[in-house]
Specification:
The protein has 272 residues and is α/β, with parallel strands linked by helices. It is 35% helix and 11% strand.
């Protein structure tokens, strides 16, 4: 007779019954889900005013959604996409605001999406690191590095090949491409450097959320004809701790974009 049958009732756990193991095994065989990875500042919510004190960037009272963003996330959620917010927050490294303050901002953002738009966010991925002196990522999670996307794809069984990264700069586009998703640009004027390279070429460019969402829903409907049942190699090949330890891991064949900017593909001067 098994040991758990001989144990007092109060000591029996789900692990003893084997149910937790069965649950984990079932999750491993669940189909992968397509997802929308979305940038926060400038894409989902209005960016902080550069003239304001840095601490106000984490003030929940100053959260303002970009027009159409909440309604669009609701449409995409209803269509079956997982929703993941991916955000660079160097203010944490610079001491502009504390982790507690940012946690309060994050909780307020998630709550408002739920209360105002009936949107449930699957995860919020945060890079708390500052870039290096040249403005390049000094870690593997800060966009344009793909670490946040790879981690959440592994944690939530997301199908990167049927997912989208949407942001307001080419760093967002590059992060998506490095992770294996489509990279779409919401061009609200935030991108001013326009450092071009193949990984930084958007798959599509939009000026507003409603038109972006219409196109994304059409692309999602077309992609639903393809069923993926195994984790993409790009996710499976990344050990759980590798993104914290090995500089450059998970990067395709070209370096992270940095200064000086590459020449645009068409040979013309980069737009300002």
């Amino acid at each position: 007779m098994s040991a758990w049958l001989d144990a007092p009732l109060g000591t029996i756990s789900i692990a003893d019954l084997g149910l937790e193991r069965d649950r984990r095994e079932a999750a491993l065989h669940a189909p992968l889900r397509p997802a929308l990875f979305v940038d926060k500042d400038g894409t989902l919510v209005e960016p902080p005013d550069p003239d304001d004190p840095p601490a106000l960037a984490a003030d929940p009272a100053r959260l303002r959604f970009v027009p159409g963003a909440g309604e669009s996330l609701a449409r995409l959620r209803q269509a079956g996409l997982a929703l993941v917010i991916v955000t660079n927050e160097s203010g944490l490294a610079r001491g502009a605001f504390t982790r507690v303050q940012f946690a309060q901002l994050q909780a307020a953002l998630v709550k408002r999406l739920r209360d105002e738009f009936d949107v449930i966010v699957d995860d919020v991925a945060v890079c708390p690191h500052a870039p290096d002196a040249q403005g390049r990522p000094a870690c593997l999670c800060r966009k344009p590095a793909p670490g946040m996307l790879l981690r959440t794809a592994r944690a939530h069984r997301l199908d990167l090949a049927r997912s989208w990264m949407v942001g307001d700069t080419l760093d967002d586009v590059e992060a998506g491409h490095r992770a294996g998703t489509a990279g779409w640009l919401l061009d609200t004027g935030a991108e001013t450097l326009w450092r071009r390279s193949p990984l930084r070429e958007p798959d599509a460019v939009f000026s507003d959320w409603p038109s972006l969402t219409d196109q994304l829903l059409a692309a999602h409907a077309a992609a639903c004809a393809v069923t993926t049942t195994t984790l993409p190699a790009a996710v499976d090949a990344v050990p759980p701790d590798a993104l914290d330890e090995v500089p450059g891991a998970g990067s395709p064949d070209e370096p992270i974009a940095s200064s000086p900017p590459p020449t645009p593909l068409n040979g013309a001067p980069a737009p300002v």
